[in-house]
Amino acid sequence: MAITRLYLNDPEQAPKPVGFISAVLLCSLAASVGGLALFTWLAEEMLEGATARFDSVVRMWVHGFASPAVTTLMRIITDMGSVGLAVVLVIAIGLFLTKGWTRAVGWLLLSVLGATVLSVTLKYGFHRPRPVPFFGAVPHSYSFPSGHSLFSFCIYGTLAGLINARVRGLWLRIVVWAIAALLVIAIGLSRIYLGVHYPSDVIAGYLAAMVWVSSLVVADRVRKTRRGLKVATVSDPPADASE
User: Fold this and answer.
1) How far is C-alpha 126 from the geometric centre of its chain's CA atoms?
2) Domain boundaries in the chain?
3) Is the peptide bond preceding residue 145 cis, with omega within 30 degrees of 0?
4) Beta partners for residue 232, in sequence order
């Protein structure tokens, strides 16, 4: 049985089956379009005030778990979406450069740039006031979407994807994705717990990041296709004539 593979001419990546690349492209397109549609719908609902009840119920439910220990933990977690995120980013870039993963550094920086543009543009575009915080002072920026949620999804998600594309071992890949997912979810939850964001802000941050990260994946696949990929067909060994 013949197996067709695309040779990407990229020392950082191994050859991938055509079907795999096509599936990634289609899934990324679907995620990008779906995320954009959901974000648009949520933004319209927010502007019309339709999310007010949902935001209030979820905020108060999460606040019901408040305690000094939980508050301390949530402050630490929320820092992983700001100062901690910057530290992780610097460390990751240093490690990638050490290993010669220059393309990974480029994609990571592009992810950060896009997240920055998205966060600033959307916050000033919707200019939603912040809720009254449960803990701490009111941040100076607008509320919709959550910048912590957007940046954590973009950077931790991109990091997980870049690492998984360059390492072997199923369990290692599972652990990397699990850590990234837990960080992203925990950071969003911490913003709700501290009261500095509405739940709809956090969801919107995730959706905006989904659109951007999915668009990066699509752009990566299209770029490789336009450059002209070498297609090789690896055939099964010829059957023994004696058979």
Assistant:
1) 22
2) 3-234
3) yes
4) 5
Q: What is the DSSP letter of 13?
A: S
pLDDT in tens, 189-230: 999 999 999 999 999 999 999 989 888 877 766 665 655 444
- Output phi, psi for 145, to 5 deg: -90, 175
Specify the pLDDT at position 200.
96
pLDDT exceeds 70 at position 93: yes
Q: What is the pLDDT of residues 112-161, one digit of tens each?
A: 999 999 999 999 999 999 999 999 888 889 999 999 999 999 999 989 88
Q: Which of these, 126, 151, 149, 129, lies nearest to 140 by C-alpha position?
A: 129
Query: Residue 217 belongs to what H/E stretch?
Result: helix 199-227
Give pTM, 2 decimals: 0.82
Query: What is the three-class DSSP state of 17?
Result: strand
- Give 4's strand partners: 233
**DSSP, residue by residue, 156-216:** HHHHHHHHHTT---HHHHHHHHHHHHHHHHHHHHHHHHHTSS-HHHHHHHHHHHHHHHHHH
> Quick one: CA dihedral 209, 217, 106, 93, positive or negative?
positive
Angle of CA points 212, 42, 116, to nearest 5°? 30
